């Protein structure tokens, strides 16, 4: 009880000094809890949607996917004959059965040719209005579609794009473009996570999506009373045989949820990883806080020991303070985490994904995890200062001698740090020298961990050396004030090292990712320059990414083009000369001109020969694995066609980035074995302008596709390079934003260290002011101390991060990304920014120091 009273008294006596540590715990716990609440809410939303929209049993074509995405390489969904509906109705336990048609491989535009697709990446769905949809949708305006010129749209899409009754829209599919006017608007009875949904009548949907009537993509089956979904599935399967895919509502919902879950897990664990980094940085802040508080209470601890308190009681007193800090910070963090989750939901709403706060899900495990993490991390971080407090002898404390310097411990720390850093450096060297990316990645991970721990452990030794150098370079120009700032930073190298290490972690990751991102862009750009010989690349923004025949014809009819190349893929079962059968193998089919559009290196033969009839190419690694040489025959059983025996005319190099590992054949060869109705559509179309007419052809090509084919995008090489740069830049900016949490916690650490240091040096500051140091000079001294600590952390972090990034690039080189590029503008900006971070962190401590009363400061004991 005495220990608890002492801990409570000390905690509330230093509540101002504990505040920043509590904020660090709060931020870290809030990020963890916010991530968990947000992803749990997303799961709840999608669970409700999938359960509400699935019929008791669904019958689809054998080739359709489990998730209901029905598009094939022909651009049309797999279908079942309308006669199957009658067969299903005869199955035992069937209350009703209804055929429907839908597709997600569509583009919908308004009268101005603006796309009505969700900005969140959610699908655009066009389907037939049916009884199953009527359960989850309520017509709030107008009527359901009747006839070929009517379409109904969901309310969210109508509101977002300002659609009203009577507005004209166009539905673009592989069949062609269908025009209709909005006849009705329907609202979801459950939360719509952001999909854009358009309804046609059944006959129009069949013609628009499939190109013929008398077929359905889905048959929705409702069970009679007392019949379970599992029993209904058995009955329907018994009636139809095994030529169709039959799924229960749970199976459909689980398949859909699995797809969503894979995306959510990536986001969830990435965000938790950044929260973990913030926790790691927060540990340094807490260690510094308690170390300085213990140092300031040395005499008090001595008195406690003198009147009978044991080491264990002193130790426990400090740990109880840490426990109180952890509980308070974690409890506030749990509440803040729920606020972060709501904020993320609002942000997703602005991006087009509608999430209702009615579905806000706070599982019991979320606050439990947040509290446990916050308390455990705080108590563990305070353990070393608590242990040092318990080791202070009563007489030394009463003499204000503090804990004796442990030279042996310092030497052991230095040796251990050097060993860890050396081992980490060796692991990075092994990773850089690896001949396989998979092997090297393990060594890279080990090297990153060891060098990071090594730099943290050796921090005090590095601080003693680096700060002296920075003092010569940065501080001496400020005269005596600069020298005092240098001595203050060197006064306690362990404290300076820990404070700098907190900033080092975040900046090391920033530097590493900057190097990797810049190297990827530089390597890909260089590969484009060396490999791509065509002027323009046309691709589709539709979910299936396919380009229909009418669009290809429009490209070929564009004036100013010298050459147009079609490029498509199909799947086949391959039988290699060594007798191996390889199912679901992708085979790329293109026009012979593709050999000049993309200059793929070969190790044997010429790629042009692979486009001869009944010929193909294989990649080098595939050839080595299956004993294939020039002239070898590979049996290719096309998924939707006959079996061909193709002769290998070229073996492509594995040392390439674009289409690495692809097998090529000609479109003529593909057409010989695959029926015209089953021929896959193009995935890409390449166009080359007549010499000297590139700009005019580019303009003409965009104009030819703009009105009738808004789903297509035309890019030249400059566009592609910029797109690549933008995509990687957006990814890095998102990562930097998440790393900002760790950097904010590190800044709090600098602020806390300076604030406690000012309190620790109260009498010293009073004496300096008494002998003539002005308030302005005092504030400058504290600011310079802060800047040198921040720059010290930045130097360590940027150096370490660039070493990690350079090693990672060596592994990327094994995958074709061969150029190393150091983004000096980014590195320089971060370094200069670190100095400003130091200035910012010193504002409050410097202001408080300048306001000290000189006499009161001198009288401080």
Question: How would you describe this structure to a colleague?
Answer:
The protein is an alpha+beta fold and 861 residues long. It has five domains: 209 residues, no CATH class; 180 residues, no CATH class; 52 residues; 217 residues, no CATH class; 168 residues, no CATH class. 58% of the residues lie in helices and 16% in strands. It has 28 helices and 24 strands. Strands 15, 16, 17, 18, 19, 20, 21, 22, 23 and 24 form a ten-stranded mixed β-sheet that branches. Strands 4, 5, 6, 7, 8, 9, 10 and 11 form an eight-stranded mixed β-sheet that branches. A four-stranded antiparallel β-sheet has the order 3-13-1-14. The protein is globular. The two termini are 29 Å apart. About 1% of the residues have low confidence. Keywords: Cell membrane, Membrane, Transmembrane, Transmembrane helix. It is found in: Cell membrane. This is FtsX-like permease family protein.
Which helices and strands occur, and which strands form pairs?
Blueprint: H1 2-13, H2 15-53, E1 57-61, E2 80-81, H3 83-89, E3 94-100, E4 102-103, E5 107-110, E6 124-128, H4 131-136, E7 137-142, E8 150-154, H5 155-160, E9 168-172, E10 177-188, E11 196-200, H6 202-209, E12 215-216, E13 218-223, H7 229-240, E14 244-248, H8 249-296, H9 298-306, H10 311-350, H11 365-390, H12 394-398, H13 407-433, H14 437-457, H15 459-475, H16 480-491, H17 493-531, E15 536-540, H18 549-556, E16 561-575, E17 581-590, H19 594-597, E18 602-605, E19 615-619, H20 620-626, E20 633-638, E21 643-652, E22 664-666, H21 667-673, E23 684-689, H22 694-706, E24 712-716, H23 717-760, H24 762-770, H25 775-813, H26 824-841, H27 843-850, H28 854-859
Parallel strand pairs: 6-11, 8-10, 17-22, 19-21
Antiparallel strand pairs: 1-13, 1-14, 2-12, 3-13, 4-6, 5-9, 7-10, 8-11, 9-10, 15-23, 15-24, 16-17, 16-20, 16-23, 18-21, 20-21
Helix pairs in contact: 1-10, 2-8, 2-10, 2-11, 2-23, 8-11, 8-17, 8-23, 10-11, 13-14, 13-25, 14-25, 15-16, 15-17, 15-25, 16-25, 17-23, 17-25, 23-27, 25-26, 25-27
